[in-house]
Specification:
Structural class: mainly alpha
Number of strands: 5
CATH superfamily: P-loop containing nucleotide triphosphate hydrolases
Strand content: 5-15%
CATH topology: Rossmann fold
Number of helices: 14
Shape: globular
Strand order of the largest sheet: 1-3-2
CATH architecture: 3-Layer(aba) Sandwich
Number of domains: 1
Helix content: 40-55%
């Protein structure tokens, strides 16, 4: 590793930002200069939005490395950690870099993203489907139960009856998703050149295009053929990359009309989400994700045309 942690880096690390997270003067200038040295693919996906599958395909395409940019993963609501970012930006010999952080676009994160010139990518997916997939993970994965999602998962979660578990997903987990999408919608509206917004349904239909778009947004020069080859390799190993059921519309089979009413009420707190609601609530007319009848519409085709909906 050839990172040069010099006095300028030390000063930036110990500089105190303003309360909202912004920097000024020499520190801001230094962060801009250092951030321009390296492209970083920052996947700020919500949990269960294809993040693990997507990031592994990106790493394979770039022949790169997966790094951590958040202070810690426990709790999953990530905040960018400046020493980690500087370490990778200052390492002239490091491979191309991919980061995957479950993070909201809070003001502090936005200031650091802008100061470093990062180009985050997010994925819009039906919230009920993500909650269904998340529930499956909580029921089977003790590590996931220990981490939660900006919350504590009850120690007796696996012993709860099904109805109680579903209520927990809507009452405790779903508010994070509503806030997550609201913060990123604000950021994307304010700075569309910085935030790349992908659609999960488009990723399932044209994964090569989605992967290429994300990489190009972050400044990487790759071909569609390289993306397709990488997706093919990762597809063959999809089980170790947390590939889940591979169907859309499962949320309709898990949650009741009362649960969906609660989801609508949660998202209604954020009027900026109006244009995203058909996708977030699975109510897009003609979309096979919008009804259980379309749940198997995307089963197991090759990556060059369509993939069976991957999950983190």
């Amino acid at each position: 590793m050839s990172a040069i942690i010099d006095s300028s880096a030390i000063h930036a690390i110990f500089a105190t930002p303003f309360p909202e997270g912004s920097f000024e003067g020499p520190t801001l200038q230094y962060l801009r200069e250092v951030g321009a040295r390296r492209n970083i693919l920052l996947l700020a996906f919500a949990p269960k939005a294809a993040g693990t599958f997507f990031r592994e395909a990106a790493v394979k395409t770039l022949n790169g490395q997966l790094i951590r940019l958040a202070h810690a993963q426990g709790g999953r609501d990530g905040t960018l950690y400046l020493p980690y970012v500087l370490r990778i930006c200052l390492d002239s010999e490091a491979p191309e870099t991919v980061a995957h952080v479950h993070m909201q676009a809070f003001e502090s994160n936005r200031h650091l993203i802008n100061a470093l010139g990062l180009k985050p990518v997010i994925m819009i997916r039906n919230i009920a489907d993500m909650l269904a997939s998340f529930l499956d993970m909580l029921e089977t994965d003790p590590v996931a139960r220990a981490e939660g999602l900006n919350c504590q998962v009850p120690a007796n979660f696996t012993e709860l009856d099904r109805a109680r578990k579903l209520d927990f997903m809507i009452d405790v987990i779903a508010p994070w998703y509503a806030s997550y999408f609201a913060t990123w919608k604000d950021f994307a509206d304010a700075d569309p050149d910085t935030v790349c917004v992908l659609q999960y349904r488009d990723f399932c239909r044209a994964p090569v295009d989605a992967l290429w778009t994300a990489l190009a947004h972050a400044g990487f020069v790759v071909s569609h053929a390289e993306c397709e080859a990488a997706l093919g390799e990762i597809w063959e190993a999809r089980e170790i990359h947390r590939y889940n059921k591979g169907v859309a519309g499962r949320g309709n089979r898990y949650f009741t009309p009362a649960h969906f009413a609660r989801l609508r009420a949660l998202t209604a707190y954020y009027p900026q989400l109006e244009s995203w609601l058909p996708d977030l609530l699975g109510e897009r007319e003609g979309d096979p994700e919008a009804s259980p009848a379309g749940a198997d519409h995307n089963s197991a085709r090759p990556p060059s045309t369509m993939i069976s909906a991957p999950s983190i």
